[in-house]
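User: Reviewer 2 asked us to show a designed sequence for the structure in our supplementary figure. I'm pasting the structure tokens here. Could you produce the per-position amino acids so we can include them in the response letter?
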């Protein structure tokens, strides 16, 4: 952090296969880890997060995969629009050129309703405000003028913009029961002169300034949309004192989504122990959510999904359930699938490449655990069209690449597996114990002290790699275009192919130029 696909006509419907994970869920959903109650093990909701700020899929693709989400255990969607929402009027600059239309927003909600899934839209209200603050029109709302991440809570125009964003989002989602207000990772807080002055005058801490802004947002939602319950990420609350949380009354206004994407939830959660965290949250809130990750949590430029890493994350959370006080109701899980680390970052794993991981993670939550020989591992693999159980250990280099899979985006899933091996071969060629590193260093080239015998082999290897990159580039260009808009396709291909293809072209030019210096050439086979 975080490809190729067939046409819709060629894709085989997973729903038509004879062995149904849905049937298995009916018989096994009550199972759980020892010690955890069935209610805790299987809370009401399992939301799949759609992070649309990076690689937003076409609606035609989402229409194919949302039924799969439901089949494997999802009960709802957490939809993070950012600039893919069709803001209008004074906010029209916030919408990307390829933003969804109002009609598409309605279609997406209808898809969820058709499959009896909860729909939770997410609107940023404090941090991760880059898609707003990058515009000159709104630059004056930044907490730090140089950085576009967080708005200034002391600028009276900030809350005006936030309210307008909420109103436009809610107008497009009149029937939702929940609204997620983001509010995570406010990295720049209480840094401007106005905020510092407020802190001094009110004798506040920076966390009180945070709470003041969030409570203003939450109060607006409660007054204007009384039937809507707010959710927020919990990270900015972890180090906020219980006294302050209770004094502001935030527990009556919002449900925190407690997130951690690591494979092991060790004794500390940032600088706060889980024991203290649950004790504090139970004293403040009535309900909370769990936030896990099925992709987008292992590197900002990751493109292949490390399935085992994410399975371990979900199993760690399952083990944590017994530590949550019974007075704190766990409303559900949100399985996040990040597409970018922030608005300016490149893509991490694309959704089609993560479908198998998502399916296994959902089933892990449903059944209360995972082992490689568990029954649902086999059933999920069969449902997705694999002849063998899915490999969960995938990196750094995959030993075998299955040209299999019958699910929407299967060729894309296969393509990233081809790419990870190709990248490994390329890195080995550049940096390993090879002819290139031994006989064609910058020193050798500068001194024209090269051996044609080895140069010919270097040309052979570089040509092969270049041909394979070019072929895969062509395949992925075609397949990505079926699911994504042109800007997404262009970005993904440039990021993952331009550098190696350009470097290999440079190596070939240099090697051929060196060989041309020799009037007679000797061929050396290897």
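Assistant: Here is a per-position design you can include in the supplement:
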């Amino acid at each position: 952090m975080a490809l190729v696909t067939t046409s819709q006509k060629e894709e085989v419907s997973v729903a038509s296969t004879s062995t149904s994970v849905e049937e298995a869920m009916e018989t096994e959903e009550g199972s759980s880890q020892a010690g955890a109650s069935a209610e805790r093990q299987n809370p009401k909701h399992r939301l799949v997060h759609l992070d649309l700020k990076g690689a937003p899929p076409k609606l035609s693709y989402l229409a194919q995969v949302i039924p799969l989400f439901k089949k494997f255990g999802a009960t709802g969607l957490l939809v993070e629009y950012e600039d893919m929402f069709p803001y209008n009027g004074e906010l029209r600059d916030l919408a990307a050129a390829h933003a969804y239309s109002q009609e598409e927003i309605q279609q997406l909600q209808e898809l969820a309703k058709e499959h009896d899934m909860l729909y939770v839209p997410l609107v940023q209200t404090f941090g991760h405000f880059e898609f707003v603050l990058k515009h000159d029109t709104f630059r004056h709302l930044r907490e730090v003028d140089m950085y576009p991440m967080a708005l200034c809570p002391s600028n009276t125009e900030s809350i005006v913009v936030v309210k307008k964003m909420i109103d436009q989002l809610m107008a497009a989602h009149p029937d939702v029961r929940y609204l997620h207000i983001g509010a995570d990772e406010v990295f720049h807080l209480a840094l401007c002169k106005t905020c510092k002055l407020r802190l001094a005058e009110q004798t506040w801490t920076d966390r009180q300034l945070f709470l003041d802004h969030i409570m203003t947002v939450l109060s607006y939602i409660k007054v204007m949309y009384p039937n809507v319950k707010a959710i927020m990420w919990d990270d900015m609350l972890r180090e906020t004192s219980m006294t302050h949380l209770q004094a502001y009354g935030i527990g009556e206004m919002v449900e925190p989504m407690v997130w951690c994407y690591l494979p092991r939830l060790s004794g500390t959660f940032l600088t706060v122990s889980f024991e203290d965290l649950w004790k504090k949250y139970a004293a403040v809130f009535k309900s909370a959510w769990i936030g896990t990750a099925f992709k987008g949590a292992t590197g900002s430029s990751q493109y292949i999904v490390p399935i085992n890493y994410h399975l371990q994350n979900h199993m760690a959370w399952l083990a944590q359930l017994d530590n949550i006080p019974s007075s704190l109701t766990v409303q559900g899980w949100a399985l996040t699938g990040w597409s970018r680390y922030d608005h300016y970052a490149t893509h991490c794993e694309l959704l089609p490449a993560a479908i198998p991981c998502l399916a296994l993670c959902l089933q892990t939550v449903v059944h209360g655990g995972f082992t490689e020989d568990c029954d649902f591992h086999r059933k999920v693999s069969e449902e997705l069209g694999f002849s063998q159980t899915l490999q969960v250990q995938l990196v750094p280099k995959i030993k075998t690449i299955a040209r299999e899979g019958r699910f929407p985006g299967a060729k894309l899933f296969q393509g990233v597996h081809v790419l990870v091996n190709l990248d490994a071969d390329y890195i080995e060629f550049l940096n390993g114990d090879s002819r290139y590193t031994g006989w064609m260093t910058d020193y050798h080239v500068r001194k024209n002290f090269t051996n044609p015998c080895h140069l010919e082999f270097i040309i052979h290897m570089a040509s092969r790699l270049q041909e394979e990159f070019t072929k895969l580039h062509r395949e992925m260009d075609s397949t990505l275009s079926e699911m994504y808009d042109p800007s997404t396709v262009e970005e993904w291909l440039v990021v993952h192919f331009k550098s190696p293809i350009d470097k290999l072209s440079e190596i070939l030019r240099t090697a051929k130029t060196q060989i041309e210096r020799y009037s007679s050439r000797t061929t050396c086979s290897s």
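For the response letter, you might also mention the following. The CA atoms of residues 259 and 291 lie 4 Å apart. The chain is about 45% helix and 10% strand.
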